[in-house]
Model the fold of this input.
Amino acid sequence: MKTVKKKEGKTVKAYCLGEDSPVIHDLTEKGMVRQTDGSHWRIFSQEATNGEEAEAGDYIKIDSSGKPYPNSREFFLKNHRPLGGDEYEQIPAPLKAWDIKEPPCRELEFLISRKGLSINESDAAAYFSAPLWGDTLTAAKDAVIIFYSIQYDDGGDVTDADFNFVARNEFDRTYEIL
Done:
């Protein structure tokens, strides 16, 4: 595994679900954001099949392909500094990451055995899939798996991990390898 972080000083635009926003309204009209009830939404990111679940107070950001993706409120507020309006500066923190160029590791094996990660070697476009954000997300073979957190027991075995897929083009644009 490698250690990565978001690039320094990156400014992003983000929108809080449940607040009035012309951007969220536009994404809704385009079918990329769908409100399912008074406080829940489905977000159709690059990796989504049926829409990632999000709720009021969560934030969405737009990736380089123009697709929205959700951030939980807790994660977003911890990792972004408001600049005014809908602009925020990302606060980069070191994270672990894995891609297909690396040998399998215990963290990847944990995702396969305990978190539902599956690998479809016959489909390079949907090589990875996993149940994330209330949907089954898929990612291409060249995608990067980002670990937002990993817990280990006293013996060094993985006991939990929070992760997501990042499309290669988005990874190359927004992350740096430390």
In short: The chain has a mean pLDDT of 95. The radius of gyration is 16 Å. The helical segments are 22-29, 73-79, 106-114, 168-174.
